[in-house]
Amino acid sequence: MQVTWGRAAAMILVGLALLAACGGDAPTADDAEVQAALDELAIEVEDAADELARVARSELPAGAEVVATRAYRDCTEGQHDWKRDDPFDLSCVVGHAVVVAVPSDATFRADMAELDDALQATGLADRRSEREDSQGLAHVAEDYFGLLGHELSIDPDGQPVIYGPQDLPPASYNSAEDDLELTLAFTGPRDEALARSDDQYRDPAGRRLDPGEVLDLLTDQAYALVVDVHADEAW
Q1: Is 149 exposed, middle or buried (0-12, 13-18, 19+ CB in 10 A)?
Q2: pTM of structure
């Protein structure tokens, strides 16, 4: 199964058109042309995230299902002064995350090995060679899977907290053909960072969910895999 990633040439043309539309002035996040370009990118990002979530589900235990999604975008204006001169006037990230709940981790190691193979078969490559903190599932397995099943801490009731899939660091991949990136994050019912976030999600029917409601959906699950595809665009 091949995921389509090509977009670089089209976005260069969009950037040139934006500069022309702005009369040579630096574009801002409120410009209609910028929003139109980001809307177009959001469609591509969402399509890629949905496709890769299907790839992930095919390698996960029976019963793995999508319980929530999150679309996001954020823009930062470049700084140009005596202290700093960014190489952009406007930089934006557009992303789409799919939360896949997994009912069992009995075959977790084998599942992740098969998922790594399946992702690379789509044309993705892990990113360990580019950033020390960015690596594919095979390297996460090498560095962290030995911790699975060991005691992580003691909860307020005096019970041991066991290191499980939801405690693993994320895995990252990118495409040799384009700028779309994939992050696979692990979460679960005791994910305190998710509980504290203000991210907004939707269930498969389109109903809004806050982070607490997403965690409630994971109460009886072994863990959840977050398939997050995102792309940066700068002008």
Answers
A1: exposed
A2: 0.84
